[in-house]
Structures are given as structure tokens and as C-alpha cells.
Amino acid sequence: MDDILEILESNSRISLKDLGKLTGKSKTALEKSIKKYEKNGTIVKYKTIINRQKIKGDKGVVALIEVKITPQKDVGFDLVAQRIYRFPEVKSCYLLSGTYDLLLLVEGDDIHTVASFVSEKLAPLSSVRGTATHFMLKKYKEDGVILVKQEKNKRLAITC
Predict the structure, then answer these.
(1) Residues 6+ apart with CB under 8 A from 44
(2) Are 129 and 70 contacting, i.e. CB atoms less than 8 angstroms apart?
(3) pLDDT tens across 63-111, in order?
(4) How many CA within 13 A on the CB side of residue 66?
(5) 35 and 106 in one domain?
């Protein structure tokens, strides 16, 4: 991967001056490369990672849902996946190998919202053969960023 992309992926807020120091490229060359990456869809979005466990009152629920689907003739999984990932509750959708075909990351206000999504929108789709829902209890790491602080060892040292 291009060194500009690697740096931006780990720190999208880096200044062009600092990016230039790391890559050895001029501000003009960096601006041109970044615009090209944005225009051709290589850079899709700049993202902030938020540790929701730190936000008081945030009662949102996240679930990982495995979905078995029947691929459609001549289009395979793509058309079914497209129909599913267009639901606003679906934040991410991945094609998998193995027992299940799709993995969805779904967000809702509470467990009932996610359950309603599965039972009223997802499961009734004719191509869906089965689902397995896993509710996320705690995030330790997201996109390479550790979200939990390591506690210092509270045990007393043994002295002789």
C-alpha cells in the first residue's frame, strides 16, 4: 500500500506538513495524491473512533448477525447483500466463507430494536435461510485502536 495511505489510515488528521516530513513529498504532491485517492474512491471516508462506553447515557446496542442466504441465479450473493446492506440498521456487511454467507454489524436503540429488525425485516426475505445473532457486550479494540486502559497490577510485591 502507498505510504500516504498507510499514514492517513492510522491518523487522518495529520497535517500536510507532518505528512510531507514522513513521506519526503511536497505539499503540492500530497494534495494531488490525496485528491486523486478521494476522487477514485480509494479514500472513501475519514473516520473518528468513539469509545461509546465512555459516553454516559448511551444505551445503543450493537449486534453481529451471521446470515445464511441462497444465492440468486446469475448474480450470486451480490443482489441479496445489496438488499440487506441498504437497511439503515446495517452499519457493515461482509461476504464470508464458511457456514454463514454474510456477516452484518447492526446497531439499534436497544435489544428489542435489533430483534425486530431480524424478525420483521431480515428473516422474512426470501433468500435468507437462517441467522445467528450475537450481541456485543464490550469492545476491547476497534480498527487497531485499543479502547480499554490496562489496569496497573494492584497486588503488593512480595519482599523477603
Answers:
(1) none
(2) yes
(3) 999 999 999 888 889 999 999 999 999 999 999 999 999 999 999 999 9
(4) 8
(5) no
Q: Which three cell numbers stand for residue 41?
A: 474512491
Q: How far apart are CA 31 and CA 2, in angstroms?
A: 14
CA separation for the pair 112, 118 (Å, rounded): 10
Residues 6+ apart with CB under 8 A from 33: 2, 4, 25
Cell of 30: 500530497
pLDDT, tens digit, 9 for 90 and up, residues 15-32: 999 999 999 999 999 999
**83 and 32 inside one domain:** no
How far is it, in rounded angstroms, from Cα 28 to Cα 16? 9
| Overall pTM > 0.70 | yes
User: Which residues are bridge partners to 72 per DSSP?
Assistant: 76
Q: Distance between CA atoms of 135 and 50, rounded to whole angstroms?
A: 18
Same domain, 28 and 92: no
- Domain contains 160: no
Identity of residue 156: L
